[in-house]
Structure to design on (414 residues):
């Protein structure tokens, strides 16, 4: 039958595309095992602006500011700056009382990118006397050596760098535990592997540093998508600058506890990737032709993850149709179909759960604290499939806040 032949050919093509993508990422992951050489101590002490965009963060922002005050770095060489936006609580008052400088965004804020569009040029003016800006989220906690490590990175000639993002609440429930496992994999297989391969690593939202000199050179660049961190990575590439890794500049991130909040957050990530592919793939390809460098192609591959997820779903649908044809033609027994479906589901759960278990062992975190995340990691990853498909047709319009109801200090984590 013609339809059967078309479906078979489609399945072959989809599998070749997905296999090529998987082989590329597997090959890149081998660079994970290369050791990162530590940077020497810096002879200079750069002056940093620590920027915090805050929306209804009254429960957590004082602990963040307190962790910044505990930096092993001269207090005169950095300033804590909070930009409250759309707040309905006492975020601004608490931040001011804790010792932060309050900076008001003059225009309406719909996303974190809007905050950065205002704050980056404002804080990069020479009269502000900052050498670099470090961006952290209001729900973060910052390791005492964070600015010291970023200073070493900046002094070594790197103009933009991403720190190491750890989990603040991995043992709360299965959702937060799954986030912990996801970021552990991302930090190593995405960020560290690319850094060791000489590629630009992705900025991941918080715990990153960018020099004010670079911002001034990029003054005509603004954030247009919901995924301002990946957008910054691409803007740096278009400016001829790689994002470096600062593995010892650590921030602790608080993860969502409800599936609804997790869904909204990941929908923003997926929708932002679709926006980026539409806006930036053309400029990236032009830059690749201009520089004769494959650096930009890697960024494109990195931002094809949602597209590959959709192709994987299409491949699944094609196989279902082929199975239905086989049943109609009595070429396949229904018992064999059920056996394949059950075995495929079970093997994928075992594979992901086993991988999550290995991650936990590598990080030396107590299994009693993270067992729920290990068991639910398969569902966490699988639930990204409908998110990616929905966002293909309906991209979120605004940044939805994540509610934080409790205070965790740096001492609690220690």
């Amino acid at each position: 039958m013609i339809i059967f032949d078309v479906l078979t050919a489609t399945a072959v093509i989809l599998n070749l595309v997905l296999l090529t993508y998987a082989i590329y990422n597997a090959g890149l992951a081998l660079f994970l095992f290369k050791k990162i050489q530590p940077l020497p101590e810096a002879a200079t002490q750069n002056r940093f602006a620590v920027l915090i965009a805050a929306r209804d963060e009254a429960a957590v922002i004082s602990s963040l500011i307190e962790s910044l005050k505990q930096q092993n770095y001269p207090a005169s060489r950095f300033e804590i700056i909070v930009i409250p936006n759309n707040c309905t609580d006492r975020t601004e008052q608490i931040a001011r009382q804790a010792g932060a400088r309050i900076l008001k965004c003059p225009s309406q804020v719909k996303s974190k990118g809007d905050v950065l569009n205002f704050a980056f040029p404002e804080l990069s003016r020479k009269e502000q006397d900052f050498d670099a800006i470090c961006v952290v989220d209001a729900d973060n906690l910052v390791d005492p050596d964070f600015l010291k490590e970023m200073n070493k990175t900046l002094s070594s000639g790197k103009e933009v760098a991403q720190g190491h993002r750890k989990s603040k609440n991995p043992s709360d429930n299965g959702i937060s535990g799954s986030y912990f496992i996801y970021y552990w994999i991302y930090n190593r297989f995405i960020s560290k592997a690319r850094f060791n391969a000489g590629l630009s690593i992705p900025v991941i939202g918080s715990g990153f540093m960018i020099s004010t000199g670079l911002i001034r050179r990029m003054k005509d660049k603004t954030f247009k998508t919901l995924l301002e961190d990946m957008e910054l990575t691409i803007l740096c590439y278009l400016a001829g600058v790689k994002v470096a890794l600062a593995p010892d500049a650590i921030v602790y991130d608080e993860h969502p506890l409800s599936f609804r909040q997790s869904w909204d957050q990941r929908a923003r990530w997926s929708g932002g990737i679709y926006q980026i592919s539409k806006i930036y793939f053309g400029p990236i390809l032009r830059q690749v032709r201009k520089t004769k460098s494959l650096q930009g192609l890697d960024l494109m591959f990195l931002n094809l993850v949602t597209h590959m997820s959709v192709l994987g779903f299409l491949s699944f649908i094609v196989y279902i149709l082929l199975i239905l044809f086989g049943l109609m033609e009595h070429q396949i027994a229904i018992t064999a179909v059920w056996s394949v479906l059950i075995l495929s589901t079970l093997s994928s759960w075992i594979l992901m759960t086993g991988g999550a278990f290995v991650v936990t062992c590598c990080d030396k975190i107590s299994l009693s604290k993270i067992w729920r995340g290990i068991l639910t990691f398969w569902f966490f990853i699988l639930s990204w499939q409908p998110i990616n498909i929905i966002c293909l047709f309906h991209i979120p319009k605004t940044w939805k806040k994540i509610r934080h109801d409790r205070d965790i200090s740096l001492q609690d984590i220690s």
In short: The two ends are 65 Å apart (CA to CA). The first strand starts at residue 48 and ends at 54. The chain has a mean pLDDT of 91.
